[in-house]
From TrEMBL:
Binds 1 zinc ion per subunit. This is Carbonic anhydrase. The keyword Coiled coil does not apply. Pfam families: Pro_CA (PF00484). It comes from the Eukaryota. Zn(2+) binds at C39, D41, H91, C94.
Length: 173
């Protein structure tokens, strides 16, 4: 099968990047010992928006920047790679504010039928982890992580909102 245009662009962009790449010496653990959980939204550039240099931090991205969805990665980051702080950063205009589980399940059923619904049920229990209140979701995620025994009490956890309209971040908790 021939590569798609997107795949060809990826290879060309990577060739350009690799031609001047000089950071292969960086250590595996993040140098600044922190992890960020943020949304996969394409409008967010965590490195540029939050001043992260290559090798500084773990950036864990998922739909909505949801802590429950990131827990496995956070445990690895902290327990195996020494991070000492977690920042939850959600954002304005998030798609997770626009639907409920029944809506998403309905779309999957419409597009993929019963087999698709069964696949998401067995994969993640059909909980898409949507939230109706942005600030409330930030607070809830921080509280959930602080209460979770898989994250030691010594780990600093804070919650933030990134405004996609202005590029500014504000502290919530």
């Amino acid at each position: 099968m021939a590569p798609t245009q997107l795949q060809e662009n990826l290879v060309k962009a990577n060739e350009k990047y690799a031609s001047s790449f000089t950071e292969g010496h960086l250590a595996l653990p993040p140098a600044k010992k922190y992890a960020i959980v943020t949304c996969m939204d394409a409008r967010i550039d965590p490195a540029a928006a939050f001043g992260i240099t290559l090798g500084d931090a773990h950036i864990i991205r998922n739909a909505g920047g949801v802590a429950k969805d990131a827990l496995r990665s956070l445990v690895i980051s902290e327990q195996l790679l020494g991070t000492q702080e977690i920042l939850i950063i959600k954002h304005t205009g998030c798609g997770m504010l626009t639907f409920q589980n029944r809506d998403a399940v309905g779309v999957v059923q419409s597009n993929l039928g019963v087999a698709g619904v069964e696949a998401i049920r067995s994969g993640f229990g059909s909980d898409f982890l949507p939230f109706p209140d942005l600030e409330g979701a930030v607070k809830s995620d921080v509280e959930w992580l602080k209460a979770n025994t898989a994250i030691p009490v010594k780990i600093e956890i804070s919650g933030w909102i990134y405004e996609v309209e202005t590029g500014k971040v504000r502290h919530v908790v």
